[in-house]
Amino acid sequence: MPDLSITIETRLQAVRNRIAEAATRSGRKIGDVTLLAVTKTFPFETLRAAYDAGLRDFGENRVQEALDKIPLLPSDIRWHMIGQLQTNKINKAIGKFVLIHSVESLHLAQALSQRAAAAPQDILLEVNTSGEASKSGVGLEAALSTAEAIGQLPNLRLKGLMTVGPLTEDGSKVRDAFKRLKGLFEDIRGKKGIGQDISILSMGMSGDFEAAIEEGSTLVRVGSALFGVRG
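Request: output the structure for the sequence above.
Response:
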């Protein structure tokens, strides 16, 4: 078996260098950006190597896969739910993730609120910035009112916004999507009653995280650039 730690350490350093360079280009510090390792479908050995290399924020797409991994790995890992959350999985998800990125509607937020009475759950509102039918998330035109409604729900803490950039080779379209979310982020932060806790702008993945950082991302979700292509 290859030494995963060496491979991941090398890739991690390369990704951190790219993050630092993008942050510098936009007048920001590397500490302004959280690196979230997207660990979905990767086995325990890969996650352990990532942990040993210094990563602590891990993102999973499926609740059950995360629940299978959590007991096997150190307790100081911060687990994030980044995939679509079905309402029938809410009870299993509550309290297991430091942040649920994929709250794609007011309906889902209401269901989470009803079942999170034991402890408040931190969430992000997912926004469809590209208008693509294949993408989840509330539309840009409805995002502000949805954020305001979520801000009134008990047992939830709206911490910010998330988007998936458009699937295109046109870098200007990708940047436009990120710019729109950044503008919405600032609008929500300025809203009395909901803006005081808004601090996370989750946008950018392996193929576009540098552009996302330059446009204001505070959290990038990186998988293949750290771990290689999934089998």
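Strands lie at 34-38, 57-60, 78-81, 99-103, 121-128, 138-139, 156-162, 200-202, 219-222.
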